[in-house]
Amino acid sequence: MKKILLAYSGGLDTSCIMAWLKETYNVPVVAYCANVGQDEDLEKVKEKAIKTGAEKCIVDDLCSDFVENYVFESIKANGIYEHDYLLGTSLARPCIAQGMITAALKEGCDAIAHGATGKGNDQVRFELAVKALAPHLQIIAPWREWNFSGRNELIEYAKKHGIPVPVTIEKPYSMDANLMHISYEGGILEDPAQAPPEDLFLWTTDPEKAPNQAEEVTIEFQCGVPVAVNGKKLAPADLLKTINAIGAAHGVGRIDIVENRFVGIKSRGVYETPGVTLLIQAHKAVESLTLDREVAHMKANWSLKFAELTYNGFWFAPEAVLIRKAIDASQGNVTGWAKLKLYKGSSIVIGRYAAGSLYDTKLSSFEEMGMFDKHDSGGFINVNGLRLSAWSKCNESIEKSLQTIA
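^ that's the sequence the OP posted. Answer follows.
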């Protein structure tokens, strides 16, 4: 190979990988740092990359792309993996991977390296993206190649090479932050019986210390896409930042789960996802008014498949593209608003409205029948009960036959 592009964050793993790549391959390395809203000084990250041996460091602002083309796609899908995980890392990886591949081709790199561990999901996500978009690029996965067995050894390697890292043996949390969430793994969290220490959380207010006064927030949607908060129209990234701040202030969006990684390992993760927790809740409320029953039930299955494909790294696979198109087709009438009440870590829907609502007060009211003819219900029940009656009679005759034989 002639040149390597490294997905670089400036953290423990990628800082050591930069030095290791130079030692092992002796070719130029371009550091690629994607800005997906991780709220850190990226100029310092750039300086560190150069000092650690990078020929060049590219800082790529992907915030708008990430929110508009990944996060909001998941909002439309109600993307939730295994009931709780809102896919914050899973959605960022294909966004970053596409940026990496574009940069690698532009810089004349013929290999891409990443810092994902040999046990995790991210190695799958990055590498499947490369195979889908630029299969001619070689992939280097140091965690599958070098002899370090864990992060404690990596910390010692960093000290030996004079590489400053924001991790200690006493507090070795692995963190991933972006505009959508912060995730925490490692350290004490590897024991699923241990509660996460309160000083772990960097974003959301401790629900016990959240405001004693509930707050109401109204979120508007246009064809399934969030467009306004409390009546104010906002660009995608600004809208997410705004709703994040509101949710975080009330301690909304904390989850502590044991999830099933694609590679077959269970892992414990703690997440803070304040804004998207509210956006999906509000989106479901507007959908409840606007989606036909059968479409809603079909879309529920699509949502599960969307989450599974996204989590497992198949964002660019043909089946994932097809699922997203189907979900888009379901969102044409999902225009309206939902009002939520936030209080000490919880949020509930207290109102929803859509101009194209399928909800009919006259049909649903207990006070009047409207267009509904109550006499039709008897025939409806009889027709649906035919197979049940046939099954019951058959089952009864079988039981009598068995009794006779006995």
